[in-house]
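FAQ: What does the model actually see?

It sees only this:
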Amino acid sequence: MKISRRKFVKNVAGATAAVGALGLTNCAPKDESLKEDLALLPKQPKGPVKEKYDVVVVGAGLSGLQAAILLEEAGYDVLVLEGRKRLGGRVYTLENIPGKPEAAGEWIGANYARMISMVDKMGLKLFSPPMTNDQRPWMYNIKGEFITKEDWSSHPLNPQKGEFRDLLPSQFLSKISNHENPLKDQPLDAWLKPEFQKYDIPHDDYLRSKGIDEETIRLMNVTIHSGGMHRTSALNELRRYHVNEFNGKMQFPDGKSYKMIEGGNSLLPRAMAESLNNEVLLEKTVVAFREKNNITEISCSDGTAYNADHVICSIPISVLKNVTFEPLIKGIAAEAIDHIGYGLSIQAHFQVMEPFWEKDGLAPNMWTDGELERVAVRTIRYEGQPEALVVFINGPESLKFRLMTDEQVFAYCQNKLAILRPSTKGLLKPLLIQSCERDIHGAGDWVYWQPGQVTKFGNNMRPRHGNIHFCGEHTAIMERGMEGAFESGERAALEIILEA
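And it is asked to produce this:
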C-alpha cells in the first residue's frame, strides 16, 4: 500500500520547513497518522531478488540511501545497488587506521538539518572531537625554508601586506577567496542566478582583478582540490566559501559548529541501509540502463540485471560516461557528463614508529609548497593506539600518482619526506592509500566547476532522463558535501512520489 501524496508531502514539508528555517530542530516525521500508516506497510523479507521493483536506487551513498528511505516510507518497493564492497560512498571511516580518521565526509555542520535528523532517527550519537589538527603545532616549509606560525607575519617570504599580513599560507585560499565575496548575504542558491555568471571565469584571473599578487596565487594553489586555479571557476570557489561561511555561523546547543558521529561517520550509511526492507546488494557495478515499454533494465558488470518502474541514479557525473544509456542522453546533459570533473586528492597513511618531532625539535605537522603539500600527525588517538601520520596531497600535484601503484606512492612519500625532514627516515610504516579519485566508483572528492561550466551546466544537472532520476552531491543547489547529498536524495525521491 502506498501512502497518499497529501500525507507524504505533509510529512516532507515539515522536515523541509526545518531546513528552510535553518534551525536545529529535529526534522524527522512527526505526523502521527503517517506513523500509523507506516506501521501497516508490509515488511518485505530480505530474501530473493524480485522480477521488478517500483524503484531501483543505484548507489548506497548518503543521497541514494536518503532517497530509498523516503520512497519506502511512501510505500514503494525499493532495491539499492552499490558497486563497491562497502556502503557509504564518500563517507568512509578508515577503521583500521589509528584514530579512525574519515577519508572524506568528516564534519557535520550545525545546519545539516536533514543529516542530523537521520542520525537521531537511526539512534546514533554526535560528539565534538577532543582535538583538531589546528590544536597540534604546525610549521610551514616555503621555498625550502622552515617557518613557524609565529614568525610568518614578519617573514620576508610572506607576500602579504596590510590586513592580510597575519594570514597563514594555509588560510590564503579560503580567507582571500571569501574576502568581499559578491555572494555574501545572498541566498544559498544565488550562485545559479544570471547576475553572478560574470564570476564564472578562471579563479586566478578573478583574484588578479582584485589585485592579488602572483606569489599569493601560487600559495593558494597548494590547497585547491581542483585541477588548478586556472581550471577552476571563481564562482565555484565563491560558492564554496559562501556556503562554508553560512555553515560556520550556525551552532549546536552546546555552542559547537561541527560534530562527528560516535564510532565513525560510516555508521550512518550502515544504519540507513539496515533499516531498508530489501537488503542492499554490494559489488553491483551498474554498466547500462535500457528503457523499454516504460520499464528500465539496470545491467551490472557481473551479468545480473534488475527491472524497475523508476531508477534513482547517484553515480558521480564524470563516471556516467562509462555507462550505457538507451535511449541515449543527448544535448547539454551529455556535454556535462563528458566535461564536469571532481576534486583530486590522495592520502598516504603511515604508523609512526617513534615520535620523530622529538628528535628534531620541530612541530609535528607541516604545510609545504612542495611535492608533499601537507603532512599531519593524527590528533585524535584512542588509548593504547600508536601515532599515525597522513601525507595529504590534492589538486594538480596529485596527478602524478595516477602513474603509481600504492607501493610506489608509499615509497615516493617516504623518500621525499626523508629529504625534507631526515628525522622521519625509517620511522614510518605504510598503512593505507586512500583516494576517491583512484576509486572507479568515486572519480574524486567532490564536484568542481571549471570556468564557464556553472553558466552552461548549472541548471541542467537535475532533469530526469526517461524513468531515470539523478541525485548526488553534484546535483545539490543549496548545500554542499554530506548535507548536499541528503538534499539531492530528497529531491529525487519527491520527483517520483509527486508524479504518482
